[in-house]
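Per your request, structure below.
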């Protein structure tokens, strides 16, 4: 079982950060997508092909810095490896504004079991044998964002597992509650899913426990998540991005709402 290749695009300024890209098709046409479990809907860039589709509605969503609204259109088909949907309603990104990538969201992934093998740069869809896997319960909110618990000593943080995030983001209010776990290391310019930019404080996050495994210290960004949390069913303490996700292999059985770490890579 070969799976879907993951194209890892390293960040130019942070060697712990990267984008996770995949190749798929829209009505047989090749597209490269950001693989984004933190997005409720699949997005397509505005181009000569998507421009001709009539608007069927609007999608309003929030990034960590800004909110925005884009058109909804119905694509004849969207295919990613063995996953395919026909007459599929997706977000069409605006022609003007910040440059953003086409992305695969949870609307395409929520009915599948996905084994994210970061040590092999691939994701296996609906793997055969799951009998011996030590699963934990998975919480999916109303828009199917996947939540997992992260242990900071005796404190449990609610976090979204976001393959579309290049780096893990910690809520500044959470950092203030547990300052011993976050060492400031400088500032950078962060960009959210809406293309909005903001000066962002960076931290070295201390070792944590996720899925019964000890994750070593690594870099995270500190962002006030109060605005985006106000739109969510369950507020987030952290958004786990590539800087955390790349340190393990993860199995998400989305239909049965269960998850596991199958291998720690550090």
């Amino acid at each position: 079982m070969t799976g879907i290749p993951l194209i890892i695009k390293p960040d130019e300024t942070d060697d712990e950060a990267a984008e996770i890209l995949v190749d798929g098709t829209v009505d047989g046409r090749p597209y490269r997508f950001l693989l984004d479990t933190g997005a409720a809907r699949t997005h397509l860039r505005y181009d000569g092909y998507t421009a001709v589709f009539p608007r069927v509605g609007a999608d309003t969503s929030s990034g960590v810095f800004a909110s925005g609204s884009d058109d909804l259109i119905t694509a004849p088909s969207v295919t990613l490896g063995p996953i395919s949907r026909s007459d599929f309603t997706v977000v069409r990104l605006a022609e003007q504004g910040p440059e953003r990538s086409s992305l695969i969201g949870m609307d395409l992934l929520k009915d599948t079991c996905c084994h994210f093998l970061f040590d092999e740069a691939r994701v296996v869809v609906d793997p055969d044998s799951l009998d011996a896997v030590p699963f934990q319960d998975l919480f999916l909110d109303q828009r199917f964002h996947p939540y997992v618990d992260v242990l900071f000593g005796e404190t449990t943080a609610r976090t979204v597992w976001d393959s579309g995030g290049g780096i893990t983001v910690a809520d500044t209010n959470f950092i203030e509650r547990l300052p011993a776990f976050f060492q400031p290391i400088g500032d950078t310019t962060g960009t959210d899913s809406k293309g909005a930019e903001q000066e962002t404080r960076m931290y070295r996050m201390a070792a944590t426990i996720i899925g019964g495994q000890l994750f070593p210290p690594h870099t995270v960004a500190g962002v006030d998540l109060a605005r985006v949390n106000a739109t969510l069913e369950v507020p987030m303490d952290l958004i786990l991005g590539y800087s955390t996700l790349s340190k393990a292999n993860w199995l998400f059985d989305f239909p049965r709402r269960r998850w596991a770490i199958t291998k720690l890579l550090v």
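The chain has four helices and 24 strands.

Regards,
D.
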